Amino acid sequence: MISKEHIIKRFVSYVTVDTESDPNSDTTPSTAKQWDLANALVEELKVIGMEDVTIDENAYIMATLPSNVDHDVPVIGFVSHFDTSPDFTGANVKPQIHENYDGKDIVLNAEKDIILSPDYFEDLLLYKGQTLITTDGTTLLGADDKAGITEIVSAMEYLIQNPEIKHGKIRVGFTPDEEIGRGAHKFDVEKFGAEWAYTMDGSQVGELEYENFNAAGAVVTIHGKIVHPGYAKGKMINSIYIATEYINSLPRLETPEHTEGYEGFFHLHTVTGDVDETKLEYIIRDHDKEHFEARKEVMQKLATEINSQYGREVVSIEIKDQYFNMKEKVEPVMHIVDLAEEAMIQLDIKPLIKAIRGGTDGSQLSYMGLPCPNIFAGGHNFHGRYEYVPVESIIKATEVICKIAELTASKHK
Ligand SMILES: [Zn+2]
């Protein structure tokens, strides 16, 4: 129904615009360059025939596809983000198109010997015979989440061009800064005006998610005492050693590299320090609310214990909640998950319902009053040079959006 060439052209036009976000910036969007794609998207939405196309002072884009039926249908929405992860450069992306993938190694970059291999990334074998879009090995691709934007724009365009498909009012929303955890925080849920929505921000074909981590960040600061090493006996407190003690007191196996499924973790991602002061930056993740709270307590308690050993506050800790499991907000309206599942089944896509080991814009939006499960966008190996997306998956996700729109209207006759 939707031509591959058309999809590729649209996707390439998005990923070749650098929209890397920056966690160290306080502005929204966090980087001025995100406006480049945001402004282009606004124009494109108008060109394909969307109505009420708006962009606010923080670059949040919204648009409407009006209903084409007489009866009342709940307003639904589709959301994706246009920034890319600061984990890896998103400048000068040179997408490589590999038609009819043969299931073998893909040389991303011969000069630098960068290979995308199914020996390591077995998912590749799911897509034998399909058209893959990869990087040239020097940047990320940005399928996260420009595949999602491609799908939403293409679905709206398709519905506009095929008015025989009956649907209610549809709202679309594109956000900046999802990758730095701020995609939803300035999203005007009331203005969006949808009863529920879906983020198009998952990975493999069929993914459908309504559970995600509860998340917090912790900064542990160890305050040492610097004294001339020649005269330090009984006086110096080396914050680095205390930091090591702190690190080793947390369960070594409850870390990202040792956990999967519903297992939570402590993740130490940054250490900076010298004798005088060492800072440990952690993220804490758990699907289960109680376990999540317990993890925060463990970190707190450990600080208290060390402090009591030294008889003063050598360890201070600051823990901030980041987002919560959307399950709590989606379960009361499970029909919105069932609907997406039914859409996939009707399109011969096997639904893969699983818990996200992360968060999405949707988890925050769900807590802001817009229940918002997550649907596959098709890409793999996000946030790095091995990122790739099969064009066929983008087309399938586009079809899922159209089918959800159609089912929502037919079920509310
Ligand atoms: Zn994403």
TrEMBL record:
Catalytic activity: Release of the N-terminal residue from a tripeptide
GO MF term list: metallopeptidase activity; tripeptide aminopeptidase activity; zinc ion binding
The keyword Cytoplasm appears for this protein: yes
CC cofactor: Zn(2+)
Chief location: cytoplasm
Protein's organism: Bizionia argentinensis JUB59
Compartments reported by the entry: Cytoplasm
Known EC number: 3.4.11.4
Matches recorded under HAMAP family: Aminopeptidase_M20
Manner of cofactor binding, per the entry note: Binds 2 Zn(2+) ions per subunit.
GO cellular component: cytosol
Function: Cleaves the N-terminal amino acid of tripeptides.
Residue positions binding Zn(2+) 2: D144, E179, H383
Keywords carried by this UniProt record: Aminopeptidase, Cytoplasm, Hydrolase, Metal-binding, Metalloprotease, Protease, Zinc
Top EC class of this enzyme: hydrolase
GO biological process, one term: peptide catabolic process
UniProt: Zn(2+) 1 binding residues: H81, D144, D201
Protein name: Peptidase T
